[in-house]
Amino acid sequence: xxxxxxxxxxxxxxxxxxxxxxxxxxxxxxxxxxxxxxxxxxxxxxxxxxxxxxxxxxxxxxxxxxxxxxxxxxxxxxxxxxxxxxxxxxxxxxxxxxxxxxxxxxxxxxxxxxxxxxxxxxxxxxxxxxxxx
Length: 133
Hints:
The protein is an all-alpha fold. It has a domain of about 50 residues. The chain is about 55% helix and about 0% strand. It has 4 helices and no strands. Helix 2 packs parallel to helix 3. The protein is elongated, with a radius of gyration of 20 Å. The model has no long low-confidence stretch (mean pLDDT about 90).
């Protein structure tokens, strides 16, 4: 955590805060679109709804020792990171429904947790058994 003791930290924050802040617009737009997808398609696929509250937690802004700027960014990070985790859940459930197949093994690839339920790469019989019509 050497970066926390950087003497130029404030200057770097001033430079990047406007860039970080603009990400909220595409995050909100994508969140709305993902929720529309979630509410329409999941019932059609008979996939259980994922609970947003299990992924998005906004509470750190209540800490008294934070200044107002830190509180704003605690709300931002709680929402942004949580909603991205929620999208990952929606994508994982969708992938599992349609045709989850593990990727070819690669020691550098960080396979998502839900891939453990997929047939192995190249396992045609496993795939056909998993996704029989």
